[in-house]
Amino acid sequence: MKNRNRNKWKIVCNDELWFDKDVVLQPLKNIADIDCIVAKYDVLLESIGNYDAYYASASVRTDRQVLNRAKRLKVIATPSTGTDHIDVDIAREKGITVLDLAKEFELLDTFSATAEHAWCLLLALVRRLPWAFESVKQGQWGRQRFAGRQLMGKTLGILGYGRLGRMVAEIGKGFQMNVIACDVLEFSSPGVRQVDFHTLLCQSDVLSINVHLTNETRGLFSSDAFSKMKKGMILINTSRGAIVDEYALLDALNTGHIAGAGLDVIDGEWSDNMGANPLIKYARRHDNLLITPHIGGSTVESITGAREFMARKLAEYLESLN
Prior knowledge:
Layout: E1 9-13, H1 21-29, E2 32-36, H2 41-47, E3 53-55, H3 64-69, E4 75-77, H4 88-93, E5 97-99, H5 105-108, H6 113-126, H7 129-137, E6 155-159, H8 163-174, E7 178-182, E8 192-194, H9 197-203, E9 206-209, H10 223-228, E10 233-237, H11 246-255, E11 258-263, H12 278-285, E12 289-291, H13 300-320
Parallel strand pairs: 1-2, 1-3, 3-4, 4-5, 6-7, 6-9, 7-8, 9-10, 10-11, 11-12
Helix pairs in contact: 1-13, 6-8
């Protein structure tokens, strides 16, 4: 159903187009009236019923309640590879198409931001950079107190040897690490040994999670999985929070079974009270857990590239409905 007065589609956008909104949305301007709203659940819930298309923020849940109000919605476009912020099954039941970037491989191959961020987390942990910097700001100079660990000769384990897993592996080779990887598909890659999940857990000094959240991977890092890990290993997660059982992770950190964890994602990122999350509460009091607010893909290049691409993809889809 179009806006009959101007023969244009109506689009609501709550994605945070931080850099150049006019450029990003340009492909849509000739075919649609676009309303930009704040990225708040209540605002989306109140307004979604007025629109044909939704350009979605990953920071706001598009759940059954929202979709029940989206009476005229034809399509949701999210400039992300993950869609766990959208109840995709419900959307499809209602005949709403969901556009994402998961299979836009040519585009994604140009983005290295998340793989680079995995290494930011790892290096910050092994060299204790956030805590050393805080100490320096207090006028202290504790060289011995902040002694770290080197990576050369250690074993880097990678769960998921797709686009990002391969990037993480290549950086690991540069640090002269031994690289092993676990993937559901067989692969052959110089300098990388394919192993099963049990071996990955047992042999990794550092383990990087680079798989999608699915029914099979949800809660994969359970208490049982942590019990199989090397004592003193480090876990890095730039994928999705629900892949890791938070309480199992906290127990492994508290007991010292693992030396540290670097997380760019946690379960329940859409909460209005993030400070109550048990991982964040733990991180306030300990220096073996480092958390960043899902900024792995947040670089100028990846943000603008993904959003411009999705605007074009959404425009093409709407034009195909004419």
